[in-house]
């Protein structure tokens, strides 16, 4: 180790023994600002639960200027149509390309069987596109449309979760970070909110729904941060109230709803969890939502995709009864005929994982039937495929 | 657009109309600190030019405790052996895994023909390993050993660049960020340093050597930053002096070299560019060196690799005269028999680019011959393949 060295240059603000790589996070910070950010948020749930209003409230922007509302007759047979709105917003020099993926009309029809399917397909399509792009020859300027978070709106009128909610979340929880919100919370008293939250959290647990998990606090975080984190976890599902109108409350102009019995203030934490949700979604966990999407959901999709492709190629090769010369040295395990043994070993391992998960899910499924009386109605539960089974099934089809 | 809303919660430190995504760079900053950094630096050049001493001076650490020096006889036939040293260092809570790749003995032998080859192979091997890893099924915990920067040491005794310097840098400039340094600058007067730098910059230009380019300043940078950036570009090749010993100069203890005629202070900008080099390498451009490695050098390697693989597969398929059913919908273009047309289109385009580059390089090459009298000796110039040609050749071999 070197002895002390007085830096007699470089501004004189250096410590002794200071190399300077402590600036690395600042270099990353600087680059990220230059590059700009993007975030894709999906909102899902019955229409009329205030999805659009909440999104506008969250980002202080009007994403739905040209929205056309359908009448009841149109909505009865309406299919779930996915729409995308993109806005470029800037704040203190930080640029954000915000994309809102809306699933209008969800749950509107009389028969909502498999209404989650088009949403699941949409998410998969974005993964597939990204997979193609990142496997392609030219990877510059790849447009990343992967969905980073799905705000799932739960009706305040249900006794906990409705079967459709369970079905929807279970069909999507392996594909996207689900954040459940209790919509239109101004119809519930504080006591009702509290009870409903506990019920919903219990049901989420009971049906094995994997919602977005806030990352664990590091032991070196300060107490304030830990307290905030604890409160956040206790707030699930966030009880929210949205408003596009500004009203006057106690001499201040606030976003709110003017009732004859008083004013509901959207950003008042005594009235609802709007501020908590916004803090989580935007100010503290936005980057984590992106990272989990990239590192977990996308990686799962990609692994399943490679597995079914490899199976297909292996099967075709067997059919063609090709006798290949050995010894070609090919660098990628994905390409058949080469590192096949290694790939197949991995696939076997992955298959076992899937079987294991399936087994666990079946236990859950049985459990679900036992407690079906919790549901308002439960007409599709038998047809409800678990996500693992769903993808596994897809893999078989590919063969 | 929403009207003003007074945030009556959330600490009260919020602006009006403040959503909060301006914290995104801080979220990235925070995550990067948690994850830690890594950096791989290669040093190359004749032995005796102070490579190890400079690295120790840069990172205030002793990377070469166990080094064994070879005697002259051993060095004559010595092959270029690559060694790797890794240290975990921490500064102000920022962790850095620093890897130094050393090429000891380089240029030591009497016949140094193709002595750059093992270095080029080493860099390619790291790319290949990363390519395998990022194409594999499980991409968690990939170890990234790609070389982010190569400090190339130029002897202060040459009249500008030596033929070996030209050969080495041309063989590597498409694979790694080369930063040339003028070694042991305490043997040169300030006037000599200035002249030598100009000469070397001219020769770098003349021989078409692509050294690491500092990114252009944005127009919104402040004047100070622009001035610094300009000085940096004018400093190439950085004239450096290393020292592991601490001496007393003007009552201060400094890293330096004690001569009968005075004290050379390593960190005195009037004496050499050590501080400039350290600032660039560590404090301002370390992240950019990593980004260029990832986005340019690695992507070039990957594209060439995919091209030659695809050619190989297409050729094999033709030989096997397989008739494939059409209509299989396979998501990745890399996999043969599928998005083949798109891939082949891309390859054709890339081929044309390569041909174009080849053509340009041939002009350079001719030019090089014209000016061969600039060299001290020039015995290998005819055998010197350009990097493009080299890789193209590799592709043909694969077929």
UniProtKB/TrEMBL annotation, chains A, B:
One Gene Ontology molecular-function label: GTP binding
Subcellular location: Cytoplasm
Cellular compartments per GO CC: cytoplasm
Keywords: Cell cycle, Cell division, Cytoplasm, GTP-binding, Nucleotide-binding
Sites annotated Important for dimerization: 157
Region spans: Disordered: 318-337, 355-399
GO biological process, one term: cell division
Domain Septin-type G: 35-308
Ranges of biased composition (kind: Basic and acidic residues): 318-327
Domain of life: Eukaryota
Gene3D superfamilies referenced in this protein's UniProt entry, alphabetically: P-loop containing nucleotide triphosphate hydrolases
Family per record: Belongs to the TRAFAC class TrmE-Era-EngA-EngB-Septin-like GTPase superfamily. Septin GTPase family.
Protein name in UniProt: Septin
Naturally occurring in which organism (per UniProt): Astatotilapia calliptera (Eastern happy)
């Amino acid at each position: 180790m070197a002895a002390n060295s007085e830096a007699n240059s470089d501004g004189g603000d250096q410590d002794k023994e200071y190399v300077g790589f402590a600036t690395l996070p600042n270099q990353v910070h600087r680059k990220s600002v230059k590059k700009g950010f993007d975030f894709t948020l999906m909102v899902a749930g019955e229409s009329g639960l205030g999805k659009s209003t909440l999104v506008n409230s969250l980002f202080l922007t009007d994403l739905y200027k040209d929205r056309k509302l359908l009448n009841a007759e149109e909505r009865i047979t309406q299919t779930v149509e996915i729409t995308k709105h993109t806005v470029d917003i800037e704040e203190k020099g930080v640029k954000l390309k915000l994309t809102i993926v809306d699933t209008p009309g969800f749950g509107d029809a009389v028969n909502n069987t498999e209404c989650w399917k088009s949403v699941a397909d949409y998410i998969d399509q974005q993964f597939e596109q990204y997979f193609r792009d990142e496997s392609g020859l030219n990877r510059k300027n790849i447009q990343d449309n992967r969905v980073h978070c799905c705000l799932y709106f739960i009706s305040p009128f249900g006794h906990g979760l409705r079967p459709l909610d369970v079905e929807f979340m279970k069909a999507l929880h392996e594909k996207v970070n689900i954040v459940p919100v209790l919509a239109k919370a101004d119809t519930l008293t504080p006591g009702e909110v509290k009870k409903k939250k506990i019920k919903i959290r219990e049901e989420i647990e009971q049906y094995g729904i994997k919602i977005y998990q806030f990352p664990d606090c590091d032991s070196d975080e300060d107490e304030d941060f830990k307290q905030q984190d604890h409160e956040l976890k206790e707030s699930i599902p966030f009880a929210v109230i949205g408003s596009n109108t500004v009203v006057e409350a106690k001499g201040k102009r606030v976003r709110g709803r003017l009732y004859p019995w008083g004013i509901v203030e959207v950003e008042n934490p005594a009235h609802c969890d709007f501020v908590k949700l916004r803090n989580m979604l935007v100010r503290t966990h936005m980057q984590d939502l992106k990272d989990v999407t990239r590192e977990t959901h996308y990686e799962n999709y990609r692994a399943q995709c490679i597995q079914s492709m490899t199976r297909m190629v292996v099967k075709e090769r067997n059919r063609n009864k090709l006798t290949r010369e050995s010894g070609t040295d090919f660098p990628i395990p994905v390409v058949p005929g080469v590192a096949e043994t290694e790939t197949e070993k991995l696939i076997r391992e992955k298959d076992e994982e899937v079987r294991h998960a399936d087994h666990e899910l079946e236990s859950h499924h049985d459990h679900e039937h036992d407690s079906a009386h919790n549901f308002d109605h439960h007409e599709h539960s038998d047809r409800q495929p678990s996500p693992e089974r769903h993808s596994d099934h897809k893999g078989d089809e590919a063969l």
